[in-house]
Write a structure and sequence with these properties.
Distance between the termini: 11 Å
CATH topology of the largest domain: Archaeosine Trna-guanine Transglycosylase, Chain: A, domain 4
Number of domains: 2
Oligomer: single chain
Shape: globular
Structural class: alpha+beta
Radius of gyration: 15 Å
CATH architecture of the largest domain: Roll
Order of helices and strands: EHEEEEHEHEEEEEH
CATH class of the largest domain: Mainly Beta
Amino acid sequence: MEVKTRHHLRSDEIGRIDDALAERLGVDLEGDSFERVEFVDDDTDLVLVDGDPLVVYVDREEGESEPFLTVRGANGFSPERRIVTVDSGAVSFVSDGADVMRPGIVEADEDIEAGDLVVIEEETHGKVLAVGRALVDGDEMLGDSGKVVESIHHVGDDLFETTF
């Protein structure tokens, strides 16, 4: 991914990111340096925290974007909310970017609402595999069939592999 622009964030923008992540995920993001990175051939914007790609801006249906943790960020800061846990049978599919299906889910935060961004973790070690958008509420995620989370970013994708 070729970088288009890279600039340091002002304290008010950092505050908005901190507030959003605390509200959505229960995460207190710590860092001294925050830089927003825009790419040439991709609409995705990243925020580097002390040089690490920890936050991604994800588009909403209304045309705005919202800050959320990257897979690296979620593995580094352990979210407390908006977690969907998948079984070992789903790990290879989710890691390859597949959407999450009901049969692979062993647990989901009941406070998740359809349209929310969520982190997808595996049950054995609690490692985050992907970030996605919930298609149904959390209390409707367990079951026998159907897609319930659309994958947005996963281990091994271009965003995950980006280094600075």
